[in-house]
Amino acid sequence: MLRLLLLRHAKAERSRPGERDHDRRLAERGRNDAPRLGAYMAKHRYLPDRVVVSTSARTRETWDLAAAEMPGKPKVAFEERIYESTPRALLQVVKETGPKVGTLLMIGHNPSMHELAVQLIATGDIDMRQQLLEAFPTAALAVIEFKLDGWDRVHAQAGRLEHFVTPRAIAAADR
Hints:
- This protein has a single domain, classed as 3-Layer(aba) Sandwich (Rossmann fold), CATH 3.40.50.
- Helices cover 35% and strands 23% of the residues.
- It has helices at residues 28-43, 57-67, 87-95, 112-120, 126-134, 167-174, and strands at 2-8, 50-54, 75-79, 103-108, 121-124, 141-146, 159-165.
- β2 (50-54), α2 (57-67) and β3 (75-79) form a beta-alpha-beta unit.
- α1 packs across α2 and α3 (87-95) packs across α4.
- It is globular.
């Protein structure tokens, strides 16, 4: 069983004049949501063996804040192909994952993260799938399971949506 965790970066600041999109940092809301999501992942044992993060400042910051709330130190790679990518490019990164990795966390951007999640999922809770189809907000996490014997075999409609959560849902549950 393979488990893919797709995490969209937390809420980022708006672009400033002359600032490159790649250099945008997290907004205050994002700096609050990322550790909350990391704690949620730890609590529910959605812990990665390997992490692949876009090279952008906001995805790196999302990972740093979320990781601070998780036990262990998985191997982390910063991958340029995730920034301004396509679902196909993201899938290629997934397929290159080594055989010893049972749980892979990818932190990236929309629309490609959303599109990849939609392409990979064939089954799972209907309400959760509908929620994911409608939107993949900042700091949302999709947990997709595959009954495959290697990451290189991951393909469209091969996954089951195990879980989908947003910062808003976590905050509502904590009340």
